[in-house]
Fold:
Amino acid sequence: MSAARRWFGWLALLIGLLGQGLAHAHKPSDSYLRLNVNEQAEGGQFVSGQWDIALRDLDFALGLDGDGDGRITWGETRAKHDEIAAYALARLAVASDGEACVISVPEQLVDDHSDGAYSVLRLHLACPQATSKSKPPARLSITYQLFADLDPQHRGLLNLQAGGQTRTAIFGPAARTQEFVLEDLSWSRQLSAYIRDGVWHIWIGYDHILFLLSLLLPAVLVWRAPGWQVSASFKGSVIEVAKVVTAFTLAHSITLSLATLGWVALPSRWVEASIAASVVLAALNNVRPVFHGRRWWVAFGFGLIHGFGFASVLADLGLPQGALLLALVGFNLGVELGQLAIVAVFLPLAFSLRRSWLYQRLIFVGGSLLIAALAFVWLLERLFNFKLLPF
Structure:
């Protein structure tokens, strides 16, 4: 069987899986934390909020499905309210002007998001410094560690409302504690914050990183039938990488813009499953190449899908309309800087090792197969709503 037929056979299989499993697919683990800092205390509280956490994630951590029937009912969730609140609050800390706030959960609800049901925790924060001064805090420090021991891919998406402005942040393994000065923000400081969010998103998005690495692995090699040969020129490798990264950047910038501005919308579960499939196919293309001379086509085509994945983060941050353009520019720039950092580390190292058995067999072939295997598991998890990998 020719390489092309094998490659398209894999494509047909993945499309079939996508078609069968989309009704059950879900996106990677996220929670949504919204905090409001009020100019005047409401009920003695300057700071209040809401925390939406996916029931499927809480079930994985706490076992909400009491009868084991695969469905989490309202009764099962209500029976675990105290346990849910204790589990969540043990993994969230907020300090106001250097003094720890006491967080309580006076009410719990259940709400539906695009990817399933979420437990909604209403938050009250008693912050001593603000109460003693009878004025809202000037600075908040937030430490977020929800599911840190269970799922390194989990992200906390923060929407912080203070002084009529919206601040956003993404919490993950590399950014568990963040501090916010609650003063009027200039456009340059807001732009800087969105750039930081974009960098963190690409660095904690394992599926995006593995897709990029799948495209970079052959950059120090040249296809000459019947196989790969080492590239003789670092300049040639740089040009190849530039074409691939430019195509990927252009593609995901198009769909990121379209989706963020609300002109095109796709179901998040379809997007996330398709992203996993794109990683599988990009990695397999290294082992049985079809687009060996036109890999920028692969980068552009699948980059369109990844752009919708990036856009979902901006949408989930709950930005006001007036902040969309600035957020779009900053977040997209942050994604590009995050990608370039990966390229800057990978390319010189790969070029120096390209002639060795270590690179040609273990890193290039073995690494591509490992990436394909991991992404295929992610695809199955996202299609059929189960979890095998801890990341």
